[in-house]
Amino acid sequence: MNRYPGERLGLPESGTGSIARPGRRIGALVIDYAAATIIATGFLGFDQFALPSEAGLTQFAPLLVFAVLQILFIPTAGGSPGHRILGMRLVRLDGAWIGLWRPVVRALLLLVVIPAVVWDADQRGLHDKAVGTVLIRA
Fold first, then answer.
1. What torsion, rounded to 10 degrees, do the Cα atoms 29, 30, 33, 36 define?
2. Chain segment 81-136, per-residue pLDDT in tens
3. Secondary structure in 3-state letters for the chain
4. Where do the structural domains in the chain lie, given as residue ranges?
5. Model-level pTM?
6. Contact in structure between 80 and 32 (CB atoms under 8 Å)
7. In Å, what is the CA distance from 34 to each residue of 30, 62, 66, 94, 113?
C-alpha cells in the first residue's frame, strides 16, 4: 500500500517533483478553458450566448482551441499555460522528451472527459497513463 501518491513511481511526497494535486489540476483546467474560450470568441466567432441551433460548428470552437493549446504547449513549454501558471509540468515517466504524439492523444482523451476523471492510486488520470506521463509540481 502506498503512503502517498507517487511513492511507487519514485516521486517525493511533497514539493518539487511530487504529484500535482487535484486543486492545482482543476485550477489549470479552468485557466486553460477560459483562455480557449477567450481566443475562440476573439478569433473564431464563437458566441457563448447563441442558441445551439444558431451556433453551428462554432459551438465547438473553445474545445478545438483547448486541444490546440495542449498540443502546442506541452512539448514546447512542458505543460499547458494553466499548468505552467500554477507551477506544474508534464513529464514522461522515463524522463525523456514528451514528443509530439503524446500531447495529441492526451488532448483527445481530455476532450472525452472520462479518462481525465478516472484516477489510479497515484492520482494519474487514464489520459496520462495511456501516454506514460505524470503531472508533477515544478
1. -120
2. 999 999 999 999 999 999 999 999 999 999 999 999 999 999 999 999 999 999 99
3. CCCCCCHHHCCCCCCCCCECCHHHHHHHHHHHHHHHHHHHHHHCCCCCCCCHHHHHHHHHHHHHHHHHHHHHHHHHHCCCHHHHHCCEEEEECCCCCCCCHHHHHHHHHHHHCHHHHCECCCCCEHHHHHHCEEEEEC
4. 16-137
5. 0.90
6. yes
7. 6, 9, 9, 32, 17
